[in-house]
Amino acid sequence: PVLRLLEAQLQDQRREHEEEMEALKNQVDLMQEELEKQQHAFLQTLQLSPEVQVELGLQQEITRLTNENLDLKELLEKLEKNEKKLKKQLKIYMKKVQDFEASQTVVPVERRPHERNVQVAVQRKEKDFQGMLEYYKEDEPLLIRNLIT
Asked: Which parts form a coiled-coil structure per UniProt (predicted)?
């Protein structure tokens, strides 16, 4: 049984090796064909006049730059789409933060009625300032605690 298992494993490895070798041979053949095409095109180019060689070179460069521009436009569109998505998420999170702040300012007022005037003053102050706050993610609990107090 052990010998048969080893033979089966050896045959599997041999088959995988042969398949891998066949794939590599196909890849080498394709590369050789491509190389021959490029050599043929190069030899044809050398037989042309210098003016035509320059023109062909310019055409190839224009084609390359056009393809590069198309790729960059596609990337720009993706980035703009991502920016819009992130802006929407930011609006949602800002709304959640505002709702959270509103719920946090209501709870202390209910708990401590004698401090109601202080809370109202703080609310008015917070409404006067509009903008964004930049902070590190790990500082968020500290920031929320400070906002509450």
From this structure: 3-103
